[in-house]
Amino acid sequence: MNKMIYKGYAARIEYSEEDRCLIGHIAGIKDVVGFHGESVGELRTAFEEAVEDYLTTCEKLNRAPQKPYSGRLMLRVSPEIHAAVAMAAQASGKSINQWAAEAFARAVHT
């Protein structure tokens, strides 16, 4: 999976057939920040400008910018799944956290 990341913010990118250009939004925050470009280079520049503008606007409004995801994730699963995960992690010589992080990484990179 290709990613466009700048200052810790990631881009969610789509192609607009109607506008015949690439359209992006900063992912992982509740504020809506969009940008567009006709090429990957233009999109990259627009993305970086959008992040900078977002940070500047937040500063002018004396408001903390929303941060991308922290990396902390809490899940609720059935006791049976929890037990199976614990056994799989232990069998591979890893903590549940290490095992789950690797399983998530495999899932999103395939």
UniProtKB/TrEMBL annotation:
InterPro entries per UniProt: Ribbon_hlx_hlx (IPR010985), TTHA1013/TTHA0281-like (IPR035069), Uncharacterised_HicB (IPR008651)
Protein name (Swiss-Prot/TrEMBL): Type II toxin-antitoxin system HicB family antitoxin
Superkingdom of origin: Bacteria
A Pfam family assignment: HicB
Gene source species: Candidatus Competibacter phosphatis
